[in-house]
Amino acid sequence: MESLAYLARQPILDGNRRIFAYELLFRDSPTSDSAVIASDVLATAQVLENVLNNIGLPKLIGNHKAFVNCSREMLLGDMFGLLNPKCFVLEILEDVKVDATLVKAVKRYKARGFELALDDFIFNKEFISRFEPLFPYVSYVKMDVVDNSEANLAKAATFFKEKDIKLLAEKVEDAKCFKKRIAEGYELFQGFFFAKPEIVTGKKIDSTSAAILKMLLLLRKHPTLAQLCKSLKDCPELSENLLRFVNSDAQYKQQNISEVKDAIAWIGMRNIQEWLMLMLYARPEMGVAPQSSPLFQNASHRAKFLELLARVVYGPDEDMPARAFTVGLISRMDALVGAPLDSILKDSSADDEMCEALLAGSGRLGLLLRLADAVEQDRQSVIRDLLQKLNLNVNLLNRCVNDAYSWTHER
Q1: Which of 261, 306, 275 is nearest to 401 (CA)?
Q2: Does residue 55 contact residue 405 with C-beta atoms inside 8 Å?
Q3: What CA–CA distance (Å, rounded) separates 94 from 131?
Q4: What is the DSSP string of 133-181?
Q5: How many whole angstroms separate alpha carbon 289 and alpha carbon 130?
Q6: Whole-structure pTM value
């Protein structure tokens, strides 16, 4: 049997579109249509083993919480006893049998400091009656916006608010649904609505963002100091921001840096890339911490994931890895600026193959981008097909995903 294919990580956001937590999903292998494996206990055990031993919890979730699926057998078996209750939220699956034994186990976890959630709740009499004994111990209820009617989504908000239980809306895929749930009283949200912008026709990427994209592509090609200095000086606004950034450090209050070359030497080539990505996605001038920006996290992770995939699939000798990294970043630019990708690409450094990948999902880079999308959205059949086309095995996929998580954390 093939080993662990990958660990899917899906963000859970608050009403300000900042990361509140991640749901961690184990997938044993994308070689079958079903994402359900024989044993729920084995699945969650392997999630935790992968998180704690292979990737590391700080790299995967930062200072956020991790939601993990739990079956009846897991809860009764005291499987989570050694975990830090401040980090993990235990999601009780929708098919769990609720009886006195289960209530006792849930009450025990609650007493230890764990938060608990009800997964895939359908707001009807059967679900309410079955799970009512757990309501005093539950902190979150996850409501699928597809499986529940609009009327019941609204009723659930009132019902659970009276019980001091936070509602989480799942499968929120557009801003309209997000705003409606906010108005109803939902506090948490799961889905890729944060990456699906409200496009403004005719809007273009600003010149500074275009310059940043060009510099990021240059950096992946390992430029000389002279090349990097020239590129920065070609964009006075970036140069000024860099000098302002390095001179804001306390140790340089008595030693002002006035040359771009000296600023690069101080900040370092590796940190220049981080600074540029922060300038592009995290908007530090607005006080948004990178760890709380879903666009920054998603764009940086998929950029590194695509670069690693390109190295494995196409080799490190050509410039494919650098272009794959840039494709990953640009693929989320529409969400950032609210402009269509074709408009953004006109002012970016993307070549024809990169444009084809971003606009049509075609070509060598398009295959990699489609695989990143499928992994993020946990689309098993698509992952299986793309792995075959790329001649990529699940172990290499796993390594690329995990290494990208590590890189995202270490920057």
Answers
A1: 306
A2: yes
A3: 9
A4: GGGGG-SEEEEETTTS-HHHHHHHHHHHHTTT-EEEEES--SHHHHHHH
A5: 41
A6: 0.80
